[in-house]
Design a protein that fits this description.
79 residues, Transcription Regulator spoIIAA, 3 strands, globular, three-stranded parallel β-sheet, alpha/beta, 3 helices
Length: 79
């Protein structure tokens, strides 16, 4: 059905080496992607930049921890 989304639940650390695979999964999705960040405990600078770019492209960041919300907003404001 049109309009449905797919949720990718991330957990633990989002490391720089994970970004290429995550980008590929998002690009391969045939539906709108939602990133569930509820279980993310640590993210590097490149990961935060990536999440900010995802949000700017229309991906929804769900259950984003407070520390990431602030950091993503700061990154978005820098660009």
């Amino acid at each position: 059905m049109k309009g449905e989304s797919i949720t990718l639940a991330l957990s633990g650390h989002i490391e720089d080496q994970d970004l290429a695979q995550l980008r590929a999964l998002i690009e391969a999705a045939s539906r709108q992607v939602v990133l569930d960040l509820r279980e993310v405990t640590l993210a590097g600078r490149d990961a935060v930049r990536f999440l900010a770019q995802c949000e700017q492209k229309g991906l929804r960041l769900s259950e984003c921890p407070a520390y990431l919300v602030g950091w993503i907003a700061a990154e978005r404001d820098r660009n």
